[in-house]
């Protein structure tokens, strides 16, 4: 006789052999059990329930026969754990508890237990068993969490029902009372098991029970619900659990063993037993089920943590908060219609997703950039809205930018993306995603399923965005590079067509769409050529150069190749492979170097509106502002000469500022009455926009310097309010005047805001900024390129650094691509000439130090 529910061993020689017996001392039950398991018309939940009922009757008969013969009363036989839930797979353990009231003779009780346990062992079935009084069972549950969880599923089989009722009532009462202390222990057990067994949804040979997202986690969610502190999302959870149980049943019958590991050699037979097409279909359904359970677990444990944190507030503190913020929580704005509340990104009270189809992407991007989970109720509101009011096609510019921002958030992208996928939003936004969702990859080099690999590639690409001129194209290509794996044939060829369609749907112009399609088509070109071809052969380099077409595409392809390999797994990338690819890229770049670089612009011609503002600025001697909505029509280069041009698309609010140019503050000795040095136009204007929470999407700075009139700086900004409405133009002008004369301390104000933001946000771990000199880009100026994470006051800090370096900014071209800023500044020395090489690199280093 044993005193532990976890003991499974019987007497010597009584362990399971792994084969169903055809004869046994209890032949009636054994024969009926065998007939049930061989009956192909009874499967799934019905068969498990029938097997449980059959076993119930057999065990009840054993207790009645042997208990009466021994003259014992005051006993009860109870099923616990999985058997208690009435879920018996063909080779499941029997979890049994023999309760007694404590009055029976110990020897007689031991003899009764033997007469119950030995028939089970004789049939080759595994058994967890214990003999206890209700008080002993309650004590054991308090000391052992696993015993406690088993008793939550206690079910009466035979004997005195009052004993069973006493144990069940006490088990639930104790669990609810101790839940604040025991739930963290349960969560820790789940985490340890996940680290040990891995994530079921990505394993080629998953453990259906122990891996994360498996049956153990589903049971843990039931225990959390029983605590009344939190409950799991119900959508699809029971169906997912049923799928895993059905797969385990088929696995038991196929192997004849009590195993939960779905090994490769068994998958085809298990798929056939379940009526599925093949092993891939089996794995895909298994992964989908595991993903549902994992997502439910993430949401549930997050809710548990929030409830427990709220309960941990001392009563005195709760009393002080009552009537003010208690129960309300502090809301911190993240983006238009999105706020942070209790450690989650939620929709603002005024948000209307049914009127704002971009809101779901804006909320996801804001959550990922802040390192916060996106609240489930927010996702579901957006999911309902997108079903009735989808995004127009092609997508508006804001939607495309928010997608790029989401992809560029690094590791924080993954949980937000998974939450969107769990609610069906991803496949609604990107219908082609359905074919790669949960698709297994049988190459052992791969760590992830196809869809997760694509997201992981975007995560890796986010760390490489400083290396490329168009981070948005890199991130989107990373997301789509294996999108063709759901189709027959070469996935790169199929993917090129799909990527072209998706890019056009996202609103990229024809030129950018071609680049994305080229990257997808040739995403394996560099690694395969570098590791399989002779790089000294001119034909090798020529073939790659012809396929890539331009140095800018080569730059993107190099970054995509590295991101793809790093996301594949440890075996796919090494220093050696990276060196070979870099060597190939260097040779191809040299072959392509003859192409003129036309993407960096020089000093342009002013528009009529800019000329008008410049004249007004000269007349008044101060800044002049113009603020209005702007639409942009695609050019022939965007659409192609034979492609019908789409309708004009609103691209944001255009702010024009004209200011009489002044010497660099570094060369001015005067200071304002407040003691702060007067500020240059670029840094002052950028600082004022940052203070008014305006996000700069693009900007151009142009110096108008006619011979007979004074020079004027004209700044063209495309801006958007982070949240709320746009500020009034007269307020912007007033603050700009104060910034220019030094009475508005912008650096101090921005630093204060940055500290407040840092206190409430887990910022994304972005790659460091990169500031370089672009040689040969202009004959009249030195071009300084800045690639950095977009942030509050970034352009202001760049402007201050350039002013401190004593250079003049002749023109600037600012672009924000998702969460990345890619800026080019045309600067000259005091003599108006380009900087010497040494001086140019000193300026670049100074700007980089300012940004770090």
UniProtKB/TrEMBL annotation:
Gene3D superfamilies cross-referenced by the UniProt entry: cca-adding enzyme, domain 2
The HD domain, residue ranges: 450-551
Cofactor(s) named in the record: Mg(2+)
One of the GO BP terms on file: regulation of nitrogen utilization
SMART domains linked: HDc
Residue ranges of the region described as Uridylyltransferase: 1-333
Region described as Disordered: spans on this chain: 1-28, 624-647
Molecular function GO labels: [protein-PII] uridylyltransferase activity; phosphoric diester hydrolase activity
Classification via PROSITE patterns: ACT (PS51671), HD (PS51831)
Annotated control of activity: Uridylyltransferase (UTase) activity is inhibited by glutamine, while glutamine activates uridylyl-removing (UR) activity.
EC number: 2.7.7.59, 3.1.4.-
Transferase recorded as keyword: yes
Keyword Membrane: no
Catalytic reaction annotation: [protein-PII]-L-tyrosine + UTP = [protein-PII]-uridylyl-L-tyrosine + diphosphate; [protein-PII]-uridylyl-L-tyrosine + H2O = [protein-PII]-L-tyrosine + UMP + H(+)
ACT domain residues: 783-852
Keyword annotations: Hydrolase, Magnesium, Multifunctional enzyme, Nucleotidyltransferase, Repeat, Transferase
Domain notes from UniProt: Has four distinct domains: an N-terminal nucleotidyltransferase (NT) domain responsible for UTase activity, a central HD domain that encodes UR activity, and two C-terminal ACT domains that seem to have a role in glutamine sensing.
Entries under NCBIfam families matching the protein: PRK03381.1, UTase_glnD
Function: Modifies, by uridylylation and deuridylylation, the PII regulatory proteins (GlnB and homologs), in response to the nitrogen status of the cell that GlnD senses through the glutamine level. Under low glutamine levels, catalyzes the conversion of the PII proteins and UTP to PII-UMP and PPi, while under higher glutamine levels, GlnD hydrolyzes PII-UMP to PII and UMP (deuridylylation). Thus, controls uridylylation state and activity of the PII proteins, and plays an important role in the regulation of nitrogen metabolism.
Family label: Belongs to the GlnD family.
The protein, known as: Bifunctional uridylyltransferase/uridylyl-removing enzyme
Lineage: Bacteria, Bacillati, Actinomycetota, Actinomycetes, Kitasatosporales
